[in-house]
Amino acid sequence: MKKTIFSGMQPTGVAHIGNYFGAIKNWVSLQDEYNCLYSIVDLHAITIRQNPEELYQNTLNALALYMACGLDPDKNTIYIQSHYHGHAELCWLLSCFTYMGELGRMTQYKDKSAKNADNINLGLFAYPTLQTADILLFGTHLVPVGDDQKQHLELARDIAIRFNNIYGDVFTVPEVFTPKTGARIKSLSDPTKKMSKSDGEANYVGILDPADVVMKKFKRAVTDSDTEIRYDPENKAGISGLLEIYAAACNVDIAAAQREFEGKQYGHLKTTVAQAVIDNVTTPIQTKYNHLIKNPDHLANIAKSSAEKAASIGNPVLEKTKKAVGLVL
Ligand code: ATP
Ligand code: LTN
After folding, report:
1. Closest-lying ligand 2 atom to the alpha carbon of residue 10
2. Are 92 and 85 in contact (CB under 8 A)?
3. Residue 36: enclosing H or E segment and its boundaries?
4. pTM of whole model > 0.85?
5. Does the C-beta of 198 come closer than 6 Å to ligand 1?
6. Which ligand neighbours the alpha carbon of 146 most closely?
């Protein structure tokens, strides 16, 4: 029996190369070895106020993007979270096993509530419990994510163990999977921070950015006033961030990337990294994406049948959970 993978991404805009290297690229590489469910987590997205038309379009586009990145809908269950009621239902059950103190300690909650001080809502606070429900619903063994999600994964494990200690072996306790290179791609405008969709255009390279835009963004990447190209995240965050992107885009390790640029100038590094991203990541993905997006009916059919498949895997776990706590079925 193959083990199960679950992961998800919010349809809060077009994915960037951080999302690709940190998450999607690894989803693609794991799709043959595991039973995989990949979800467009729209219920998570609405914890921050979204423009309805944009959310709608971003959700459908995300499905095409997953496929353009190499996820095969015949091998993976690729679906929209809100199409299966099990997520919201298990979230409620698990919210009765999540402590307020635990949720209050989550760094993503602290960051997002600082950025959205006028809308610190219950959903934003409970976000990690919904994420835990996503994962536990399918008996997930492995969760491939970027570095920033490790804390949420720890919480998911704690909740699963807590529940199992009371009711017996209901949930599989999931493990986190982060890639060796690319788990925390840095912002181009402030390389001490992670690249993020919500920190402004200049900080990220979108997977659908045209080649000239990608080149321009890399040329403007913040580095330092030194001249040496060396991997040293503490003291040379910008240069180290670029080397990491190069390593991820070319599938080499950081040491090999550093050797390649020894004695070279910063300008050369920036344009070479940009070209590697254009040739190996954005252009091939965009070619497939532009083809897929022309057939929305096909995408809608995939979303529908995949949600049914997700429900058929999740429903037995949901029932088992309800039964364990004493609900009448
Ligand atoms: P936002 O900035 O709106 O919070 P995000 O860019 O962090 O969004 P998510 O949808 O929250 O994107 O994350 C999707 C996946 O991409 C997660 O697995 C996350 O860990 C990963 N990820 C996000 N940013 C990076 C990054 N800079 N480097 C590597 N992986 C990342
Ligand atoms: N919180 C995640 C997205 C997410 C997720 C999940 C990731 C929602 N549910 C379940 C892995 C497993 C993020 O990327 N911000």
Report:
1. 3
2. no
3. strand 35-40
4. yes
5. yes
6. 1
